[in-house]
Design goal:
single chain, about 325 residues, alpha/beta, Spore Coat Polysaccharide Biosynthesis Protein SpsA, Chain A, 9-stranded mixed beta sheet, 9 strands, about 45% helix, about 15% strand, globular
Length: about 325
């Protein structure tokens, strides 16, 4: 089957150039969807031979909306589409491996592989994201921003939900599974990602965005049997909001209530003991998993606040 690519990005600079170069041999057609770049990304994409779609930035931006714009540009394409973010580089052999799998598994709509960080050693935040990408192969419930998909399956569902400011890929995969499709993670190298996170504030914003996605996904699919992101949203609110507020309220009556805060280091110890990677990486993951509950709770509360006030949430960018 013929493979096209949809790349989305804004001000990715050299990362975009590398991304487009990695797609040239594997994809017969490349569509780059730009969301208001000011760094010459559009000119670089045109020079690389990509078809450029410039989003109307007068409307609220979401990655889902950008990917849908790419699908619209590929209206005459009936094969497969490689979805990829502009800060990623496609790994050699991935498209061939994924295409062979889809050729022999007609029930599968979308496949993803191993996404790695380009420079996990550059910061603890990059290292955390590299651990996050390390998911086991096999049948899955969702994928990330990089994946090879059947265009026909995406079109049948109307593409991505453009209203979501985060979590649009898991939402799509949930709807695909409800429609009878399967989602697969392959044991194959897929992309190198450049998170480029070097400041605590960037990590905090990314975690806050995740909390928003958990809450919105859980609310949007609250009637479904899959319990989509309910556990993640509940954990964020309990550990990041309910428990600290309870401790503070009880501390007004007795200072002994502050001992309840020991639940946090105890939970770090528990998570470190069960971490998928031992040693320093396990401790790093455990510590930031608990610390992340606070920005996640803020993101979840922001979603519910906007929902009750009937306001549309704004995208949270960390780069």
């Amino acid at each position: 089957m013929t493979v096209a690519a949809i790349v989305i990005g804004r001000n990715e600079g050299a990362r975009l150039v590398a991304c487009l170069a990695s797609l040239r041999e594997a994809c017969a057609r490349i569509v780059y969807v730009d969301s208001g770049s000011t760094d010459g990304s559009i000119a670089a994409a045109q020079e690389a031979g990509a078809e450029v779609v410039s989003l109307d930035m007068g409307q609220p931006f979401t990655a889902a909306r950008a990917r849908n714009a790419g699908l619209e540009r590929l209206a005459d394409h009936e094969g497969l589409v490689q979805l990829i973010d502009g800060d990623c580089v496609l790994q050699p052999g991935w498209v061939e491996t994924a295409t062979r799998f889809l050729d022999t598994h007609p029930e599968t709509a979308i496949v993803c592989g191993r996404r790695r960080e380009q420079r996990p050693e550059a910061s603890p935040y990059n290292r955390l994201i590299d651990i996050e990408w390390d998911t086991p192969p096999g049948p899955g419930t969702d994928c990330g921003g990089d994946a090879l998909a059947r265009v026909s399956a995406l079109r049948a569902l109307g593409g991505f939900n453009p209203a979501l400011i985060a979590g649009e890929e898991p939402d799509l995969c949930l709807r695909l599974r409800r429609a009878g499709w399967s989602v697969m993670r392959l044991d194959a190298e897929m992309t190198l990602h450049d998170a480029d996170i070097h400041r605590f504030g960037q990590w905090w914003t990314r975690a806050r965005r995740a909390g928003h996605a958990f809450a919105e996904g859980a609310y949007l699919h609250r009637a479904g049997p899959e319990r989509h992101w309910r556990r993640e949203a509940r954990r964020a609110l309990v550990w990041g909001a309910l428990l600290p507020l309870t401790i503070l309220a009880l501390a007004l009556a007795t200072p002994w209530a502050l001992l309840l805060a020991l639940a946090y280091p105890l939970q770090v110890l528990r998570l470190a003991a069960r971490a998928p990677r031992p040693g320093a990486e396990g401790w790093l993951l455990a510590l930031f998993t608990m610390l992340g509950k606070f920005p996640e709770a803020l993101g979840a509360l922001r979603f519910h606040s906007n929902r009750l006030r009937r306001r549309r949430g704004k995208i949270m960018e960390y780069k």
